[in-house]
Amino acid sequence: MALSATHPDDPGRTRRASLTVLIIAAVSALGGLLFGYDTGIISAALLFITRDIPVDTFGKELVTSAIVAGALVGCLVAGPVSDRVGRRPTILIAAVIFIIGSIASATSHSATMLIAVRLLLGLAVGGTSQIIPVYIAELAPAARRGSLVLLFQLAIVVGILVSTIIGWALGGSDGSGGNWRLMFLLGTVPAAILFLGMLFLPESPRYLVLRGQSERALAILRRVRPSDAVAAEELGAVEAQPRENGSWKLLFSRRVRPALIAGTGIGMFCQITGTNATIYYAPSVLASAGFGADEALQTQLLVGVTIVVATAFGLWAVDRWGRRTLMLRFLLLAALGLVLLGGSFIGGNPTGIGRYTAVAGLIAYEIFNVGSISASIWLVGAEVFPLAIRGKGMSMVALSHWTFDLVVSLFTLTMVQALGAGYAFFVFAAINVLAWVFVLRAVPETKGRSLEEIEQRLGDGTFLAMR
After folding, report:
1. Partner of 285 at 20 to 30 A CA spacing, among 51, 148, 240, 340?
2. Distance (Å, rounded) from C-alpha 167 to C-alpha 184?
3. How far apart are CA 29 and CA 456, in angstroms?
4. Nearest residue to 303 via CA among 351, 365, 349
5. Co-location of 192 and 267 in the same domain
């Protein structure tokens, strides 16, 4: 059902409500910046940790992967916690873990301690990937929900870029710096801002309705909607949805299955289409293409800037083109970028102009993949599940993301060694085509629809008919 438009007689209130929602989304999205920073900074820190802490190659792998292992647990725990204590308290808990984890990482004196701390940070990373998109989606108006939720994804890629810049700056241009403790400690700054900011932000009104606190929910909706009439109408739509037991059994029921397939499927394809594989291993690919260390670093920085720009475009496009439409328009172009990249390696490492063809293919792939399916993963997951199990449903989306992130991280280089770089990229190109088919068949268009309409369409069997 469509909610009323803005109140024509009070443009001042409309602007205040719009600004309030933007502030709520921007502050909570800082969790995404921490997500990106803490997962990205380890690549620079590992270059210098061995100066102070004895750690072998296997230990470095454990330190790097510990945050992913923690995220697998964190995303599962955060769903039930957020359904029990609320969205806002769950984000506050994650912020505290980020602060403690950043300080503990900076003061670690052994590899064992650092691995344990990175596991702890992983709990916060996984938790924020589950709860922050849900929190923003439940507060945002339907017309702006896409761009506001995508602030979280934009913050993630900005965090990755910031970690690259800080790692380079604190490492020194000749590698003589290497203040790895400060690299970790700087993570406390956005974590503290997130914690303090969340103290002043409201709870999700939909969660409050779920807990029988409709008066509090209406008061919050009046702050973030352009008129009392719009707020009351939205509250009525939320209250009209059947109150169900938010059990895991409901999540895996036949009725909810289309949403579960759509959300977790995007979570899986977001990883196996090669997004993080190219980010993780781009320097190795560039080195094999004949680039020197400085050129490889500069191109890696270009990749970092590219994914930020691509995500910013996705933020604009999801509420204008639509989530499904954006993915259908861009995924095949991403596949073509990988074909161009892979083709540069056929017959041996690229030389001459082939080196720049490889870079062009890499950049094109990042633009079209990151700007579409990577931009949509947290958004679609936060939209498609019924209110009673939204937290648990988003946990499964995040679990899919982190599980396949781990798989891709472990097996990408093995695949490159077995097939060669060119054919490995052809495999990722084919998977992008499969992702396009999946979106065409299994993902509805949720642009401009209220969360209650999406839930109603899921209940009456017309979920996949939304186009």
Report:
1. 51
2. 10
3. 28
4. 365
5. no
Residue 94: pLDDT band (50, 70, 90) is very high
Contact 402, 72 (CB under 8 A): yes
CA–centroid distance for 405 within its chain: 12
CA within 13 Å, CB half, 46: 20
Q: Indicate whether 289 pLDDT > 70.
A: no
**Interatomic CA distance for residues 3 and 10, integer angstroms:** 17
Q: Is 72 in the same domain as 147? A: yes
E runs forming strands in 80-134: none
CATH of the domain at 323: 1.20.1250.20
SS3 (DSSP) at 439: helix
Are residue 387 and residue 310 in the same domain, yes or no? Answer: yes
Tokens representing 81?
A: 């916690």
* DSSP 8-state class, residue 110: S
DSSP code per residue over 122-161: HHHHHHHHHHHHHHHHHHS-GGGHHHHHHHHHHHHHHHHH
* In a domain? residue 416: yes
**What whole-number distance in Å separates Cα of residue 403 and Cα of residue 69?**
9
Average of per-residue pLDDT values in the chain: 89
Residue finishing a domain among 171, 201, 231: 201
Q: Do the domain assignments include residue 214?
A: no
* Residue range(s) defining the domain that contains residue 146: 9-201
Q: What is the pTM of this model?
A: 0.89
> Could you read off the pLDDT of 241-284 as tens digits, one per residue?
888 888 899 999 999 999 999 999 999 999 999 887 776 666 66
Q: What is the DSSP letter of 172?
A: -
- The string of pLDDT tens digits covering residues 47-85 is 788 888 888 877 887 888 889 899 999 999 999 999 899
Q: Final residue of a domain: which of 186, 201, 216?
A: 201
Q: Which residue, 346, 321, 277, is CA-closest to 447?
A: 321
Give residue 197's pLDDT band: very low, low, confident or very high (50, 70, 90).
very high
Look at residue 348 and give its three-state secondary structure. coil
Number of domains in the chain: 2
448 φ, ψ (degrees, to nearest 5): 75, 0
Helices assigned H by DSSP within 241-322: 248-251, 257-272, 275-288, 293-317
